[in-house]
Amino acid sequence: xxxxxxITNQKGGIGKTTTATALISGLTSHGKKVLGIDLDPQGNxxxxxxxxxxxxxxxxxxxKKTISVxxxxxHTPYGDIIPSNILLTGAESEFNHSGRxxxxxxxxxxxxxxxxxIILDTPPTLNILTINAYVASNYLIIPMVxxxxxxxxxxxxxxxxxxxxxxxxxxxxxxxxxxxxxNPNLNLSxxxxxxxxxxxxxxxxxxxxxxxxxxxxxAEAPAHCQSIFDYAPKSKPALDYADFVNEVLMLxxxxxxxx
Length: 259
What we know:
The chain has about 260 residues and is an alpha/beta fold. It is globular. A hairpin with a 2-residue loop joins β3 (about 75) and β4 (about 80). α1 (about 15-30) crosses α11 and α7 (about 150-165) runs parallel beside α8 (about 185-200). It is built from eleven helices and seven strands. The model has no long low-confidence stretch (mean pLDDT about 90). It has helices at about 15-30, 45-50, 60-65, 90-95, 105-110, 130-135, 150-165, 185-200, 215-220, 230, 235-259; strands at about 5, 35-40, 75, 80, 115-120, 140-145, 175-180.
């Protein structure tokens, strides 16, 4: 049965999609069977993997039940992907029926056994799509930059996590907080880092040892429809994300052994 991981933070521009695509391609390179699901209407995950998001089946079609979840899967060299597009923008008002929190969980019931990992990229808002990701997932990974606004987004996320754990998914665990666009030399970064550690403790988790440094390759790789590992394997972000993938695998294997 697949391990489901949601990449989440309501603050935009902090590297959620970059982290999701790096984790998908990294896990695939480790021989894992991986499915990525884009729950962000911007559709950046699909674009990053070379999928024509305007002319393909998406997770929106699955939620509408116009196609099966199997029909929405696109195959790429980096793993299987269920993309999204702008039609998902109206999900909050369109999917307003009872039980809408379980749309994703129900959709994945027939395919979870086919994968080792399912990685969910969430929108930069705490809406019904984010709730669906939390309800379906085993773990959350929270990317953040060492800035006050990013820290605030993480604080607000805790309230949603608490609500989901209380009402829908008691097993939902925060695997860790991932620092992105990392520059340890900034004085503000050092101050915010201490506050980030406090928030991580409140989420019963820790900050990943791996920290993702800045680099132009992160922005360039999606335009070439390549993973960061193929596009610039020796760049700082690629080396850091490789460490991050290894750390995720180690943490999850340790948790499985503990159970």
